[in-house]
Amino acid sequence: MRHFDAIIIGTGQAGPPLAARFSDAGKTVAIIERNKFGGTCVNTGCIPTKTMVASAYAAHVARRGGEYGFTVNGDVGVDMKRVKARKDAVSGRSNKGVEESLRGLKNCTVLQGHARFQSSNIVVVNDQVLRADQAYINVGGRAFVPEMPGIHDVPFLTNSSMMDVDFLPEHLVVIGGSYVGLEFAQMYRRFGSEVTIVEMGPRLIGREDQDVSEKVREILEAERIHIRLNAKCISLAKHERGAAVRVDCQEGEPEVFGTHVLLAVGRVPNTNDLGLDKAGVATDQRGYIKVDDQLRTNVPGLWALGDCNGRGAFTHTSYNDYEIVADNLFNADHRGVSDRIQAYALYIDPPLGRCGMTDAEIRKSGRRALIAKYPMSRVSRAYEKSETQGFMKICVDAETRQILGAAILGTGGDEVIHVLLDVMYAKAPYTVIQRAMHIHPTVAEYLPTVLTKLEPFA
Ligand SMILES: Cc1cc2nc3c(=O)[nH]c(=O)nc-3n(C[C@H](O)[C@H](O)[C@H](O)COP(=O)(O)OP(=O)(O)OC[C@H]3O[C@@H](n4cnc5c(N)ncnc54)[C@H](O)[C@@H]3O)c2cc1C
User: Fold this and answer.
1) pTM for this one?
2) Which of 7, 23, 249, 368 has the smallest C-beta neighbourhood within 10 Å, fewest atoms?
3) Average pLDDT along the chain, 458 residues, taken 10 residues at a time
4) C-beta separation of 25 from 106 below 8 A
5) Distance 141 CA to ligand 1 centre (A)
6) Rounded-to-integer distance, Cα 335 and Cα 222, Å
């Protein structure tokens, strides 16, 4: 049996920096990875998809060359082998970087294999038995595959197997109209596929406000992506084209015939094969590990970080989990998950940057609030770039004058949102932004203008 000060399971966004902190503190640490170093973000999530979104954007702009005053000789053709090679190079660089940095750490033992708890302080990997008084679980999640009728009769893709696709699907049917599904849908449409999105709910990205959902739908439909909503009873069957997807919607044909199907209907945590029962770690009904505000599980000496604790589903939430745990352990700095403000982006083009509460959440909270909305078509930076789709929306508390939430759906929205987010963290009133001089020409320079339009919620 090998003894360590700490064991870390998984090399996602939290495990590797935590291993470095243990190493810097002169502690011995074992870190275990069963698949690719860097986890979801690096290998099958953010990094590869945003790299491909960039290729799709370039093709889209090339097709719009006439608007910008240039011509492309012949049709814009996309070579999927080269798109994949570029994606593999960018993603591979990060994957290699994570592995090399872990292997270069002092006092750190890197093990490859599936880790399983034998008890709360014993972890088995391959034929090795490891013991530590502290263990950190950073096992992430994977695509959810629902037991829908016909699911075993038709080959389907997930975000992971999409990474091996080096050809252009003739007609990609994306099941799931949320963040992952929409990004793949738009990028493949821009690569040249016919794309249909099938969504069970009455609108896309159902957690967002109605106006955001509708605008996103408009943006996608303008690129001739087919959208089928209210698809209550989705089922799959073999078809000569590839797959028949029964959508049973209120409007339109009852079936969609695609050559390929991408399942993007949510994620499940990788906690079912970890021996959590042997360690006595409690999970919720969906398998997420229950944690407190400092990310401690119910078992002393065991923590859970990242997607597997159900407290966030993003790279930045997982990394923030690392910061919370490390600051509590090494800096005696009392930090908690409740300190953070919800923030994320949807990387369609133009992107959606979001922070804080939605309008619906604000209304539900019963507080008195003000709202301002401004179209991107009136933002000079946007029309200079011929990228005028979308709007900016900001909500503030009528009494404290603090920002409650915002959505920036438009060019640069993923960056601009941070202006509002940081003022929210500062707990400063919105008037700080209103009085600030911003740089021209930017999207952010309009934030003070938007804030002059605040009026009570209708
Ligand atoms: C298509 C897609 C696009 C995304 N885009 C974005 C984005 O733009 N921005 C964003 O913030 N987030 C994005 N996300 C979400 C983001 O990728 C995840 O939230 C993030 O990677 C979660 O990190 P993590 O640290 O929790 O775990 P992960 O990165 O999932 O890592 C967990 C690691 O643990 C390993 N592991 C699991 N079980 C074991 C075991 N028993 N033994 C040993 N090792 C094990 C796994 O192999 C994996 O390497 C995207 C996700 C997807 C699917």
Assistant:
1) 0.97
2) 368
3) 97 98 98 98 98 98 96 93 98 98 98 98 97 98 95 95 98 98 98 97 97 98 97 91 87 90 97 98 98 98 98 98 97 94 98 97 96 98 98 98 98 98 98 97 98 95
4) no
5) 6
6) 45
